[in-house]
Amino acid sequence: MCGIVGYIGPRPMGEILLPGLARLEYRGYDSAGLALHQGDKLTVSKRAGRIADLAEQLADLDTGGHLGIGHTRWATHGAPNGTNAHPHTDCTGDVAAVHNGIIENWAELKRELIGRGHEFTSDTDTEVVGHLIEEMADVPLDEAVRRVMQSAQGALALAVIRRSDPEMIVAARRHSPLVVGRGEGEMFVASDIPAFLEHTRNMIVIDDDRVVAITADGATITNLEGEEIPAVERTIEWDLDAAEKGGYESFMLKEIHEQPQAIADTLRGRIDESGRVRLHELELDDRLLRAIDKVFVIACGTSYHAAMMAKYAIERWTRIPVEIDIASEFRYRDPVVDPRTLVIGISQSGETLDTLAAVRYAAAQGATLLGVTNVVDSALARESDAVLYTRAGPEIGVAATKTFTTQLVAMQLLGLYLAQVRASMDPGAIEYHIRQLNELPVAVSQVVGSSDEIKKMTERWADVRDFFFLGRSGDFPVAMEGALKLKEIAYVRAEGFAAGEMKHGPIALIEDGVVVIGVATDTHVKAKTLSNMAEMAARGGEMVILREEGDDGTDFADHVITLPEGPDLICTVTAVVPLQLLAYHVANAKGLDVDKPRNLAKTVTVE
Ligand code: AGP
């Protein structure tokens, strides 16, 4: 997720683009840049770091002119450095483009362009845009962008300027957001409203597969065939804070609602036309993957719950023994690691010191290291032999939400990929699970829509001090994550437990006033979970059951949360969402700051 901004009008670029980008830093902040049309040339300034660093670099430069575009980056392709920062230009420097999204066929387009003599300077997918437009120097810029949109596959929100078009910005959108702001004698284009809200409240939303030609006098929208589409203008009622949160009360709630898109982005380009998983980005030799005879999955906190789910997935689909370890424990138990061991470190930040220390220890024992992280070029990414990125975009809320569900999806993609390479799973079963993964964004959207129902259920729990979250098999990691969410944002004592374990002691704690939340979706064991829950209902606990549509046997429950029907491990993902919302609403009802919970940091860089 990145932020793009464009402006055309009488005011100096520096006064508009830099503040506009600063308002979009929640979308990405590893590098930034501007391209300004300054009469006879385009001036491009960009660097690694935040907007403030770019502003410092520009302090002594002329940021005048009346046409420009800018970008603040969250790297998905290519390290977060000055070379890969946007804008990207063509060979001549006469075309500049900024992009938010993922061009899935960028490698093929780049090979073809290099074959036609183009020279590239970055490792990004975006750079192909300028070179494609360079080849259409005699084509009107809006038509050139339409042709780019026809040849590029994937998610694109673009803004493009060209030296020979001093009065026009052309923008385009597919899957990634784009809005146009209309001022008096000036126009704005951006990924999101906060970029220009202080200048105008007149907004034109751009739909998918639309190209918009923007001059100081207005915007002309066309489809990819060049047919004009009427612009629908709205007035923005939000204040700036609300706009940065997309109208949600908090970044956490916004990020919970972003999960369908984050999951779709994590899947994008990783499943080929024949329905097989394609993880060439791992660059791990198939022979090595076939020779692996043990896997460790190591992580902390929420990421450890993803490791728990990964164990079920990888063992079930590949029959490779998988051990999971809390990172801070791993290296003190003298684990058995050797060159045929694959060690997977999961860390959304890629900077958690416990996890880094553990994987460094394993690598020193000769293991192959695979990092699963949300941050390109993070320490974990840099130190791993291979990296599988989640594509959740920046997560501002301290409590992990979208980064967790995208970890679950990434680990299932990895498990299926290993099963493909090792031929350890029926191809039909692989294709079936992949089809279900492709349906996951829709399923998660349905569950996210149940927020009001969850809120109503939690209204009576403001004073409840004891929660148990229970599950078996694939539901067990979900229960653990639900308990952690409630602890960390609502400051309520909550325990995650294997449902079958309650009868071995903890059931003594069940009495009136204790809330027990049971996750019962895993086909193999959900009946047992329900019978464990019925035992506790008889002892006075308030029972909440998460179950799939069509399931029954929950008459004893005080509340039932129904999930879309789906195969095991798919429901593991959808079942997380109600528990995120449950914790959110309990915390919100207590008036707590869900984005910045007490005592916690987003990244724990101490041991
Ligand atoms: C998640 O809600 C917590 N804030 C915390 O447990 C977190 O998952 C843990 O610190 C690991 O972080 P990482 O994924 O960045 O390594």
Structure commentary:
By secondary structure, the protein is α/β, with parallel strands linked by helices. It folds into 3 domains: 3-243, Aminohydrolase, N-terminal nucleophile (Ntn) domain (Glutamine Phosphoribosylpyrophosphate, subunit 1, domain 1, 4-Layer Sandwich), CATH 3.60.20; 246-438, Glucose-6-phosphate isomerase like protein, domain 1 (Rossmann fold, 3-Layer(aba) Sandwich); 449-591, Rossmann fold (3-Layer(aba) Sandwich), CATH 3.40.50. Helices cover 35% and strands 23% of the residues. The chain is built from 19 helices and 25 strands. The strands form 4 sheets. The chain has an 8-stranded antiparallel beta sheet with strand order 3-2-4-1-10-9-11-15, covered by helices on one side. Strands 5-6-7-8-12-13-14 form a 7-stranded antiparallel beta sheet. A hairpin with a 4-residue loop joins strand 2 and strand 3. Helix 14 (402-422) packs antiparallel against helix 15 and helix 17 (475-490) packs parallel to helix 19 (570-589). The protein is globular and about 80 Å long. The structure holds 2-deoxy-2-amino glucitol-6-phosphate.
Largest sheet strand order: 3-2-4-1-10-9-11-15
Largest sheet: 8 strands, antiparallel
What is the radius of gyration computed over CA atoms, rounded to a whole number of angstroms? 25 Å
CATH domain class name of the largest domain:
Alpha Beta
Unreliably modeled segments: none
Globular, elongated, flat, extended or rod-shaped: what is the shape?
Answer: globular
Number of helices: 19
Number of strands: 25
Quick one: CATH superfamily of the largest domain?
Aminohydrolase, N-terminal nucleophile (Ntn) domain
Give the count of structural domains.
Answer: 3
CATH architectural group of the largest domain: 4-Layer Sandwich
- Secondary structure: helix percent: 25-40%
What's the N-to-C terminus distance? 30 Å
Give the distinct bound molecules. Answer: 2-deoxy-2-amino glucitol-6-phosphate
On the 0-100 scale, what is the average pLDDT?
94
Beta fraction of the residues?
A: 15-25%
Structural class by SSE content = alpha/beta
CATH topology of the largest domain: Glutamine Phosphoribosylpyrophosphate, subunit 1, domain 1
